[in-house]
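tl;dr need the bound structure. longer version: we got a ligand (magnesium ion) that a collaborator sent over and nobodys looked at where it sits. i said id run it. heres the input, straight from their email, havent touched it
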Amino acid sequence: MPYRCRECGYRSPKWLGRCPQCGQWESFEEVGGAVDEGTAAGGGLPQILAAVPSAAGERLTTGMPEVDRVLGGLIPGAVVLFGGEPGVGKSTLLLQLAARLVAYGKVLYVSGEEAPAQVKLRAERLGIEGDSLYFQSEQELLAIVRAVKGLEPAVLVVDSLQTVLARPDGGEIGSLVQVREAAAQLARLAKGLGMVTFLVSHITKGGEFAGPKTVEHLVDVAVQLEGVREGELRLLRCAKNRFASTAEVAVLQMGPAGLSEVANPSLFFVSQDRAPKPGAAIVPVLEGSRTLLVEIQALVAPGGGVGPPQRRTAGLDLNRTLVLLAVIEKHLGVHVRAMDVYLAVAGGLEVREPAADLGVCAAILGSLRNRAIPADTVVVGEVGLAGDLRPVRKGPERLQEVAKLGFARAVVPSGPVPKRVRLEMVPCSTLREAMEALGLI
Ligand code: TYD
Ligand code: MG
């Protein structure tokens, strides 16, 4: 296709006055029929697959087990897109990982955003010396490629894609064309040299970024570092992984010396004293393949009488909560209509699973009745509109973890229960039964 939009890279066989993808006027220019070569490793001639040397056994690990469970061990040449909002800790974590990856050879950390002195300060703060860790402050892709060819590092970090100037005619730095071109060329370089490459990419809350989604197809692994509200907790999630399951999540904590692993993530979100509190319910939720116990807290109080009652949630879906309040009203005959209801997930985690429904209902009734659920009891189940209780995804796996963490009892939807789990199971087929079992109605 001989024409391409200067702004977003959209291709068209004929010149267009306005780009149908990004809406830019007069942005089409001729590209001379060139077709992207893609990023396939080796290029080259067909080979018998059986004769291709196996990359198994050569996986790079960072020595931070939490991070490794997400990255899944990187094979040489792997390209990892590392996304996150500004300030979340991408540069910090990557500098830490870079310092650990020197075990596999030279590591080159290129920053287009920070001067050597700035990075040095951070390295000192993180206690990093790193003899084989190289730093370069550079934005020109050509210069980065030249440095890579000279140094032959085992690992390259480019911080960030948005600050790489890939082509002189590609428009502003950070534009879609520049970012895509930079990612494509760096991916090709990584494959050609068998060099593990991390590409940092900024994501903004509004989602208007030149980044991850447009280059995801070029990379092998795409992860995202997320802050859990304003706290120090960080989750490293995987959006794509050609080498491992994408279901894994790492739980990390930002401290004065960078990011560290949280000792017992499953129990991180429930209070340590585990004293029973009216209006709280402990629910095993899934983050990736991992079961985390979270405490759902409710405060139900008579409304002010003027205007509709308040309904607020933090970390839970408000619409789902409104539905559950209607189910409570209708099927339990409990009046919550005129009450103000505030709900939160302790610790700031976002819980979007229907498996938390029963916990939400139990917390609401607990607060209303001022009765506490025993501290050794968890609840889990989806609540249907008919007041029925439904099984949840990976129920047995959740309960296995609950038992391991020292809980004694679980109120669960009726149905198959895991065998040989040291947990007293209380199967219920309706919300009413479950609330009765918990002594809340
Ligand atoms: P940074 O890695 O620069 O974020 P990003 O590259 O994603 O924009 O880190 C940003 C924040 O992390 C900054 O506000 C300071 C904080 N921080 C710590 O709390 N502890 C540390 O050891 C370091 C290096 C940074
Ligand atoms: Mg940074």
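gonna send this back to them w/ a short note. The first helix runs from residue 65 to 71.
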